[in-house]
Amino acid sequence: MKRTSLLLITALLAACASSRPLPAPEAEAIMPPSAAPVPADEPSPAPASAAPALALIAPTAIVPKPPLVSPDFIARSVPSGTRDRQGWIADIDNAFRHLRIPATVDNACALAAVIEQESSWQADPAVPGLSQIVWGKIEEKAHRYLVPLTVVKGALLKTSPNGQSYKARIDALRTEREMNLLFEDMSREAGKMGLPDMKNPIRTGGPMQVSVEFAEAHARIWPYPYPHRDSIRHQVFSRKGGVYFGAAILLQYPAPYQDMRYRFADFNAGRYSSRNAAFQAALSRIGGRKLAFDGDLLNYQGGQPSGSQQAALAIAGRLDLSANAVLSDLKQEKSAAFGQSELYRRVFALAEKQAGRALPRAAMPQIDLKSPKISRKLTTEWFAKRVDSRYRRCLAQWPSASAS
């Protein structure tokens, strides 16, 4: 029965993990953004078409104002009532310096807006009803395996490495950090009982809900600057590490957007998802196929090629590109290089010729957010708009700064 309870706990934790992990960074994408957003080159949004409706961006031809730069931007972006406010200010300042991100009003307010959205300035944010969520998943799995819940709870009375029973720890669960530590103890116990190795399914955590996979990959390319005795995974759940890796995901890559909303969307959906969603819209216009405008051009789950890949291959002849060339360019979808690829250029050239006007180069990814922690329908667009409203409130402190 101990074996059954451990297997059930593994299944439930996997179910409680984030359903859409961020992709690991590529070496070329880990670089500081310019001090000002990079303007795109399209003058106006596209008219409505047969493709599904999209929230499109059409940057103007106006040259952005020089960014305001001052150490005071970081301090003023952290709300006055924040617990250990000076600690937050120091962690943000250190993250910017170590990642070589300019301490501009845009960057300070963008980072502050995501922190407020994700954790309300709590270093180890509590998940409402986490214990009930976990017990609900245990009951669901127990029912599936035809094991009475009372039997499972009895098995979980086993004392865990911290001296408490597993049942007591589940009853007291409040945060993802605690859940992560619980799973690590369960995993070690499983090894002693002769069970196979269990991969930790807790994928995100900390004050910015950072992807553990992203953080571990980032640290291999851009060395983590803070002394630590534990793993990078554990650093993600700390305030210092969470802010550092969160700043890296949000700001340490060149993005072709004037509107910060699309960085916020990328933060939620993966780097360059907004650019790729606009590419999918152009691709759909040319081929007449209905595509998912989710920013993922390839299928990373195995099985059949993605709809975007099939659509691109179907018009390869019209683009004067070989199938190998199309696939080679699609593999760059998570990097800045895709925006300069022949596939990207030719798809937009053909789509704009067909439309008779310039088309947007950014679109809001259409993704439904799914997690046991979410009790209502939420989307990437909802997330980006919520964060953007916080960002603009922060910018309002400086009349000379205008929201991008």
From TrEMBL:
Signal peptide extent: 1-24
Name of the protein: DUF1615 domain-containing protein
Superkingdom in the source lineage: Bacteria
Keywords carried by this UniProt record: Signal
